[in-house]
Specification:
Blueprint lengths: L1 E8 L3 H12 L4 E4 L7 H5 L6 E4 L7 E2 L6 H7 L2 H10 L4 E3 L4 E4 L4 H13 L3 E3 L4 E7 L2 E6 L2 E10 L14 H8 L4 E7 L3 E2 L2 H7 L6 E7 L5 E8 L3 E3 L1 H7 L8 E4 L6 H11 L5 H5 L5 H9 L13 H12 L1 E3 L3 E2 L7 E6 L17 E3 L7 E2 L4 H16 L1
Parallel strand pairs: 1-2, 1-10, 2-7, 10-20
Antiparallel strand pairs: 3-6, 4-21, 5-6, 8-9, 9-10, 11-19, 12-15, 12-18, 13-14, 13-16, 14-15, 16-17
Helix pairs in contact: 1-5, 1-13, 3-13
This protein binds dihydroflavine-adenine dinucleotide.
Keywords: FAD, Flavoprotein
Pfam family, one: HI0933_like_1st
Protein name: Aminoacetone oxidase family FAD-binding enzyme
């Protein structure tokens, strides 16, 4: 049987980084993955350019049943530490928007960087590895793989969440947590597009591809100011992905379709200049024409000229456009979700090392843990920070 100091399951963002760091500390590390390539989500991320961190990373950008848990790791290995590493590997990058850092060329550079760091730490990587069972005894952890068994004093679970099963996602990490008596919070797809009920979808489908700047609000008052995109299935774009993490089935979302311009003031100015202009054509100066047409078909924009629009109608129109209420039918689910909410209960883990308090030698890092970031590089930063914290301890 092959023996190691540390076995890490999952060669994604967290697993690769943890393996590299632990290896460079002189630990003999085996990194296992069920796929044929390491870092598959990294390769797909950020439209192939990997939004690898966010300059404004702070604990408030993370959802968890235990919001304080992420603070220690994020403070000890920060976005600036990861940016330093990217600089050392001479990977060119840029800020796209809102502190989001993307590679200029390709996400593959981040995987190559992590692989180079693993090589520096003499990490042994075994791909296409199925873990059939995990057992714990005095010597540590023994894993039955397809065709071999391996043993280590420390076991790190970095197998990620459930989003995008096509990229190798499995519930493995949650099952191991349960096997060792840890609580797992129910999971659900997050950073995910909304689907709509058929009648609304049929009306809005013709807007597929149209994007507008919005502020979007969940029923709990959480608000994001980003773009919303109409799609042939429903609603997407950064604003919608963000708010999906705060939305519960059955709830409405409220969208301000004109966050930068007061509808009331706009109409007053327009009416003074062009009283005989139709309201529809007037609003088309502010919003995509097709959107205005659809809202008129839905009876939300009166079919009148500006001088015919009475003050009650104007007030209702302003309310409709500034507080457009939509009740999503659901989300597109794990198939297209960027992340998974919920996961291993953090109250059972050390925030300093990520070790399970009641199960010495067992660690959980990255997305499998009940810590989920906003869209914009926050989830990779959690992967790096939690991996680093763990790597100092294993
Ligand atoms: P990750 O999912 O990266 O890795 C888990 C690994 O474990 C995988 O390699 C998997 O094959 C392996 N595994 C699973 N089950 C196993 C088993 N039973 N046995 C062995 N191995 C197993 N975030 C961000 O900050 N910026 C971005 O630009 C993006 N973009 C983005 C795009 C897309 C399309 C998706 C799906 C996600 C993103 N994300 C993102 C989110 C980000 O990718 C995610 O949060 C991190 O990859 C999580 O890192 P982990 O290492 O925890 O899991």
């Amino acid at each position: 049987m092959d023996k190691f100091d540390v076995i890490i399951i999952g060669a994604g963002a967290a697993g690769l980084f943890c393996a590299a760091q632990a290896g460079q500390r002189g630990r003999r590390v085996l990194l296992l993955d069920n796929g044929k390539k390491p870092g598959r989500k990294i390769l797909m991320s950020g439209g192939g350019r990997c939004n690898f961190t966010n300059m404004y990373t702070e604990p408030a950008a993370y959802l968890s049943h235990n919001p304080h848990f992420c603070k220690s790791a994020l403070a000890r290995y920060t976005q600036w530490d990861f940016i330093d590493l990217v600089n050392r590997h001479q990977i060119a990058y840029h800020e796209k928007t809102l502190g989001q850092l993307f590679c200029d060329d390709s996400a593959a550079q981040i995987v190559e960087m992590l692989m180079a760091e693993c090589e520096k730490g003499q990490v042994q990587i075994r791909l296409r590895s199925e873990v059939l069972s995990v057992a714990r005894d005095d010597a540590g952890y023994t894993l039955q793989l397809n065709g071999a068994s391996v043993q280590a004093e420390k076991l790190v679970i970095a197998s990620g969440g459930l989003s995008m099963p096509g990229l190798g996602a499995t519930p493995f990490g949650y099952k191991i947590a349960e096997q060792f008596g840890l609580k797992v919070f129910p999971t659900r797809a997050a950073l995910v597009p909304f689907t709509l009920h058929k009648p609304l979808l049929e009306r809005l489908q013709t807007l597929s591809g149209v994007a507008i700047d919005t502020t979007i609000e969940a029923q709990d008052g959480t608000l994001f100011k980003e773009a919303m995109l109409f799609t042939h299935r429903g609603l997407s774009g950064p604003a919608v992905l963000q708010i999906s993490s705060y939305w519960q089935p059955g709830e409405q979302i409220t969208v301000n379709l004109s966050p930068a311009t007061s509808i009331d003031e706009f109409i007053d100015v327009q009416r003074a200049a062009h009283p005989n202009l139709s309201l529809k054509n007037s609003l088309a100066k502010l919003l995509p024409k097709r959107l205005v047409e659809v809202l008129q078909e839905m009876g939300q924009v009166p079919d009148v000229t500006l001088k015919q629009l009475n003050s009650k109608q104007q007030a209702e129109l302003a309310q409709t456009l500034h507080q457009w209420r939509v009740q999503p039918n659901g989300t597109e689910g794990y198939r297209t979700a960027e992340v998974t909410l919920g996961g291993v209960d953090t109250t059972q883990l050390s925030s300093k090392t990520m070790e399970a308090r009641q199960v010495p030698g067992l660690y959980f890092i990255g997305e499998v843990v009940d810590v989920t970031g906003w869209l914009g590089g926050y989830n990779f930063q959690w992967a790096w920070s939690s991996a680093w914290a763990c790597a100092q301890a294993v």
